[in-house]
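Researcher: Checking consistency across runs. Here is tRNA-specific adenosine deaminase again:
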Amino acid sequence: MIQDEKYMQLAIEQAKQAEALMEVPIGAVLVWEDKVIAKAHNLRESEQRSIAHAELLAIDEACKKLGTWRLEEATLYVTLEPCPMCAGAIMLSRVKRVVFGAYDPKGGCAGTLMNLLTFEKFNHQSEVQGGVLEEECGELLTTFFRTLRMKKKKK
């Protein structure tokens, strides 16, 4: 668990970078053999690309770095429970383990609404651990959206 918290802190740092860009503060870090091989944060607004989620960007960077699409020994740390798109990419890239911070009651597909990552009918399942540094990860999102709503009210 201490190791999980260490890497989740790095994902939180990525989330803060997203927040500085007025992006939804979500960060991801991919670890292979106890080394960070990729890190990313949301860039959906900056790039105006619906697929520019932190998890997908980290997975893409890791695949390029390792020269393979199979991430069978990797652990992905992400500050928010993966959405259906990201859960699909995680499963298809065969990430061994997924550790997330805050649960997502509106789109979480790693246990909240459903769990695509452990669905037995797929040819790959990931180990899933949720709630790591949950309060800190959740507070980033709560504060971001509260600030956004206040700005909209002032207009």
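Researcher: Does this match what you'd expect to see?
Model: One thing to look at in this run: Residues 23 and 90 are 22 Å apart (CA to CA).
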